[in-house]
Design brief:
alpha+beta; 647 residues; 5-stranded mixed sheet; single chain; 12 helices; globular; 12-stranded mixed sheet
């Protein structure tokens, strides 16, 4: 079970190959220092930072970001190293926060390579500090432990490095900040081409835009909820390696290069999109990777455009400053001509950037027009004709579509948001009012109703993509306030039981699922899966909790947190419909629960961010077409298949 540390507390590390994940509400610089027995850093070669992101046994991100993953191999550290200190700092620059007191409290988690959390620490209580020693991994009597530190420094990285005995601490800190500011630390290395699953790249399109985006600053950011990638896989291996598309059923040997499936595009014409062409892979895997590539291309193209616009504005400001620094140019025709020339150059640069973006968007739109109709039901929207030919599948797909993602520069281009199956963490559908335009035009009651409807459609999709009888849905609705929205699930008979209401109903469902998690975990640890009780359903389970935390006492809240932490690894998943503001009365006790869930919204909202280039992506939930009965028809087929399986 995850150890939630407080400042000064330590915890034994069960393994030596780890990831350290950092989440913050604003871009931060993440690094690490190596210390000897006394904690002294012996030189610059013992500091991993964005401009020098690798030291023996350690890799950190090259980007100033709000979401980081640091890779640690304790066995590969030099023998003299007895301490690894994870360091966070705010990047300097106009318009950026100058202290941690002005941003959300950073959250740090130590995990295994499979993503299992070992220990977490929320850095609360920071004020004027602009750099902080977050936590340290240290060797004690041959064993490694982690300690929550949270020591802040108002003097920034220079003060932190000086405290650790670094010679030329100020110069080292300045070099790091200069690298971040210049964009060197935030460049993104494009994924290498491989014969296995090589993505089709267009000669002058989004891939070229990605190369352009590598030079200007491309910040990695996470304003609220880490997106990671549109398919809940890692966008980047620790330290900037290739994208990991591995799948349990994928062949391990590289298939031969695919034959050409389409002639090259004529010069000046958009390249013809190809929907999945890697031999040796299933069509689902090809389309999954192609959607991933579309996400990359759109992110890179927009990053290049935004960087070019920023550069044009900055250049214009510099030219105006130079022109107006001469008092003779402040009045009269010379000053006017200088201003006009600077603005004309700005307009020329931004116009060329927009033209390049439009070319990339045209190619992506053409690709989307080919890919979208070819998607299987698990990846398709409710308006896709594939649902009219729906049949209950015989095996679990590799991913599920949760909604769509888009950026402001391309409002009509939508990229499917896919998550891998089985779900790696629970989902929180936020029924509260957010700052988005869609939420502002919707009443509180409407938002709550839409949130439950979103939960119902998501549960229906999960039921539809699993084989008959291998996925069960439980509903907890303490006050019975969602009876109308839950009617498609209730009426079709696909639920494991009637929605639980009242304190007794809540306690019964939670006790049942908690018992299942306990029994399966014990069986796995003992290697005795055949010893499970015969009445135990070993399929996947989803618990939908409406209007949380109303109707939950302290015991129920503890059980729910247990299910959120331990359930996914043994097939019990959580879907909470809640307004976080309603849970303020519980204080910070529920913060780890919210952090463990993927937050989505019932209306369009730009709260999701990728840790690759830092865009705030607008998420849109999937809706059934107006007047369509596709949801009821799909649930009826699922219910029929379940009844047939019981005979």
């Amino acid at each position: 079970m995850t150890a939630e540390l407080v400042r000064g507390q330590n915890h034994t590390l069960p393994q030596t190959r780890l990831e350290i994940r950092v989440s913050a509400g604003s871009p931060v610089v993440a690094g690490a220092t190596l210390g000897d027995e006394r904690g002294t850093v012996r030189g610059a070669e013992w500091i991993a930072h964005p401009a020098s992101h690798r030291v023996p046994g350690l890799e950190v991100s090259r980007q100033a970001a709000a979401d980081h993953r640091l890779a640690v191999d304790l066995d590969a550290l030099p023998a003299e190293v007895h301490r690894v200190t994870v360091v966070l700092a705010l990047p300097v620059g106009a318009g950026r926060p100058v202290s941690f007191g002005a941003v959300a409290a950073p959250f740090v988690a130590v995990t295994g390579l499979d993503g299992t959390e070992i220990a977490t620490f929320t850095l609360t209580g920071l004020d004027t500090e602009s750099a902080v020693s977050a936590l340290e991994l240290y060797r004690r009597q041959g064993a490694w432990k982690v300690r929550a530190v949270g020591q802040g420094y108002a003097a920034g990285l220079a003060g932190l490095f000086a405290d650790q005995g670094v010679a030329a601490a100020a110069e080292t800190a300045a070099a790091i900040q200069e690298a971040v500011a210049s964009g060197l630390a935030r460049s993104v290395t494009p994924p290498p081409r491989t014969t296995e699953g090589e993505r089709v790249r267009h000669p002058a399109g989004p891939a070229a835009a990605g190369a352009q985006a590598a030079a200007p600053p491309v910040p990695e950011a996470q304003p609220a909820e880490p997106l990671g990638d549109p398919a809940s896989a890692r966008t980047e291996a620790p330290g900037g390696g290739p994208i990991d598309y591995a799948h349990p059923r994928r062949q391990t040997s590289a298939p031969p290069p695919p034959p050409p499936t389409a002639p090259p595009a004529a010069p000046g014409q958009p390249a013809r999109p190809v929907a999945g062409d890697a031999t040796g892979w299933s069509m689902d895997e090809r389309l999954y990777n192609q959607i991933w590539g579309m996400f990359e291309d759109l992110a890179r193209a927009v990053a290049a455009y935004r960087s070019a616009v920023d550069f044009a504005e900055s250049r214009m400001d510099q030219e105006l400053d130079r022109a107006l620094s001469d008092p003779r140019n402040r009045i009269g025709g010379a000053g006017d001509r200088a201003r006009e020339a600077a603005r004309a150059k700005r307009d020329e640069l931004t116009g060329r950037a927009r033209e390049a973006l439009e070319r990339d968007l045209t190619q992506l739109a053409a690709e989307s027009a080919v890919v979208e109709p070819a998607l299987p039901a698990a990846y398709a929207g409710w308006d896709n004709p594939v649902w009219h030919a729906y049949r209950v599948p015989m095996e679990i797909p590799m991913a599920l579509r949760l909604g769509d993602l888009r950026l402001g520069e391309a409002p009509d281009l939508r990229i499917p948001l896919l998550v891998r199956l089985p779900l790696e963490r629970g989902i929180w559908i936020d029924s509260g009012r957010t700052a988005s335009e869609a939420a502002a035009s919707t009443t509180g009651d409407q938002l709550r109703g839409l949130a439950v409807e979103t939960a119902v459609t998501l549960a229906a999709r999960l039921l539809a993509v699993y084989p008959a009888g291998e996925f069960s849905v439980h509903v907890v609705d303490p006050a019975g306030s969602a009876a109308g929205q839950l009617s498609p699930l209730v009426g079709s008979g696909v639920l494991a039981g009637p929605p639980a209401a009242g304190a007794e109903g809540v306690a019964s469902v939670l006790a049942h699922l908690t018992r299942r998690v306990d029994l399966v975990q014990m069986a796995i640890r003992a290697g005795a899966a055949d010893a499970l009780p015969p009445d135990l359903d070993t399929g996947e389970h989803l618990l939908i909790v409406n209007d949380f935390p109303h109707g939950f006492d302290d015991r129920a809240v503890t059980q729910l947190r247990y299910l959120a932490d331990e359930g996914p690894s043994v097939g019990v998943h959580l879907l909470i419909v809640a307004d976080r503001e309603d849970a303020r009365a519980y204080g910070p006790v529920l913060d780890p629960l919210w952090r463990s869930l993927l937050r989505i919204t019932p209306v369009a909202d730009d709260h999701l961010a990728d840790p690759w280039v830092g865009h705030a992506w607008t998420y849109e939930p999937l809706r059934t077409p107006q007047g369509s009965r596709v949801l009821e028809q799909v649930l009826a087929l699922v219910a029929e298949a379940r009844r047939g399986g019981r005979r």
